[in-house]
């Protein structure tokens, strides 16, 4: 739930209960969906705490993560190097998800989340320590970032599944997006001003140091989340076994996730980099993120409030179509004005695409008693599919950029990669029509 990657229940009573479309386990076991004393559709205290931890994690990454690609670019003007750094991150993230699935299934998932946050702090410590030589260790830095993201998101997504239900999942996703956009308004803008006013060395050192402190605060806040019971044994080959079944919606859903990942893998770093290249100013990049995040804040609030399950299919289609359409102005002119137009369009329409996508996938995980009990494995399957898409998108980017850096070639590449949300909608449309009541 990043960064784009960023996006990503029942009320157990005595004995065994069942609510249509959602399944419960015995009270003395780990519930597929935990106790939720809040009124229907509302978020309880544990869900709110999880949102706070996510916001701190996102704020620290917004403060510095936006500028990591720029930092590497300034050290060595090389699209390919940044592509390889991103590829190392996503490959490591996929492996970490698969390995850490056993941890969150059989051991303390909250420690997994905390260590993920702590390793994010280590990443920025390494960047500070290596300084201008960071680009020489881009593969190792990508690996560290991939480990931190993998540990955090596998634990976060499992806990997210446990503290929400189909009645409040869209609201949770909207709240996460809302606060993430709020962090995006302030953090990169402040970072850009600090870098410009203090200079590269002092400015980057300060924002990376602040990020480190925010990550540590996130670890402290996470201790207020309740330790969650564990149950069952982790099945290592579950993703392969699930996709081999003759009749399973996960074949279509996995393809949708792959195409979702294609866009995330490239646009996650490329747009910010293009803004910097067009303006040669971190302050302009900060202003870009501030403006687009302000629009995103409103649109995520609206998506969380108004997109109900019965509207998911049409909402996702409109969102997917529009995030493709806003790439077309690049063919007229690639500059700050068209990049800002793209950013505003993405901020306005991307929540219409992402909120239904995330909610529908997690509703599918909780749709049967068996799948709810194997939520960790399904979450690993989800993330593996996303990372297959991310890796595929970045590999395509590296191949094309290594062949030609002509503006027309880059624009065509962005259009091809940016069209992947339409394929996501195509493979998800049947699942989006399944409405739980």
From TrEMBL:
Keyword Magnesium on entry: no
Identify the SUPFAM superfamilies for this entry.
MFS general substrate transporter (SSF103473)
Biased amino acid composition, Basic and acidic residues: 14-29
Q: Which InterPro entries match?
A: MFS, MFS_trans_sf, Sugar_transport-like
The answer to keyword Cell membrane applying to this record is: no
Q: How does it sit in the membrane?
A: Multi-pass membrane protein
Q: Which residues cross the membrane?
A: 47-73, 79-100, 112-131, 137-160, 172-198, 204-225, 253-277, 283-302, 314-332, 338-364, 384-403, 409-428
Q: Which Pfam families match?
A: MFS_1 (PF07690)
Q: Which UniProt keywords apply?
A: Membrane, Transmembrane, Transmembrane helix
Give compartment(s): Cell membrane
Ranges where the record places region Disordered:
1-40
The record's principal subcellular location, in a coarse class, is membrane
The cross-references to PANTHER family, in alphabetical order and at most eight, read: INTEGRAL MEMBRANE TRANSPORT PROTEIN-RELATED (PTHR23526), MAJOR FACILITATOR SUPERFAMILY (MFS) PROFILE DOMAIN-CONTAINING PROTEIN (PTHR23526:SF2)
This protein's name = MFS transporter
Q: Look up and give the organism this protein is from.
A: Paenibacillus chondroitinus
